[in-house]
Amino acid sequence: MSDCIFCKIAAGDIPSATIYEDDDFRVILDLGPAAKGHALILPKEHYANITEMPDELLGKAMVLAKKVVTYMMKALPCDGYNVVQNNGEAAGQTVFHFHIHLIPRYKNDGVGVTWKPGELTDAWKQEIMEKTKGLRGE
Ligand code: AMP
Ligand code: ZN
Q: Most buried of 42, 76, 130, 134, CB within 10 angstroms?
């Protein structure tokens, strides 16, 4: 995609703070970090979101997330990690090239990657169980 900023960064056409690179991915530091060490896994091929990602590449992306998180937990060091992946404007996606956020967490850092828990009502449960019959092959 010629007008996609993450395509250009992943290809190395726009400079970035790259902490890791292989044939399929570039891992860069986020320019607007939620916390020190916030990084993004970018596939070198353009896919807009998780639904477009080929299964094999998606699997590799999660394995890479594990590798980077495991390394950074010790290297930073930090106390925890949020692995976040936004799909669609409604979910907070602003760059429409698939990416995984790796957000280091530090005790009492006050970083808000969370939500206010609601309540699973019987109505919601019944509706969703009905709507997911196809998912289970029923
Ligand atoms: P999302 O909201 O999930 O689409 O995340 C997009 C992320 O990309 C945000 O956290 C931005 O701070 C980050 N971002 C946008 N442009 C750049 C850039 N040129 N280099 C590094 N990070 C960027
Ligand atoms: Zn792209």
A: 42
